[in-house]
């Protein structure tokens, strides 16, 4: 299967945020979540077989989503 640029917009938004914030990831949590949620949707649609130049491997996305639940209180 060929690689596609799925979630490229979210990946670029995250990179821009990191550049603006001198690589302070805590200031870009919304962008990071947006990328991982996009990647999760992409892998769900492709049944884990899709490849994206913007997304980590499916197991990394699954682990991140499990470790960072949306309803987690800070």
TrEMBL record:
GO terms for cellular component: mitochondrial intermembrane space. Keywords: Disulfide bond, Mitochondrion. It comes from the Eukaryota. Its main location: mitochondrion. SUPFAM superfamilies: Cysteine alpha-hairpin motif. Disulfide bonds join 7-38, 17-28, 39-55. It is found in: Mitochondrion intermembrane space. Pfam families: CMC4. Belongs to the CMC4 family. This is Cx9C motif-containing protein 4, mitochondrial. It comes from Laccaria amethystina LaAM-08-1. The lineage of its organism: Eukaryota, Fungi, Dikarya, Basidiomycota, Agaricomycotina.
């Amino acid at each position: 299967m060929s690689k596609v640029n799925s979630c490229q917009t979210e990946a670029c938004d995250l990179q821009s945020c990191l550049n603006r914030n001198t690589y302070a990831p805590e200031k870009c949590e919304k962008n990071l979540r947006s990328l991982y949620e996009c990647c999760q949707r992409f892998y769900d649609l492709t049944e884990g077989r899709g490849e994206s130049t913007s997304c980590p491997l499916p197991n990394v996305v699954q682990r991140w989503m499990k470790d960072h639940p949306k309803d987690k209180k800070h």
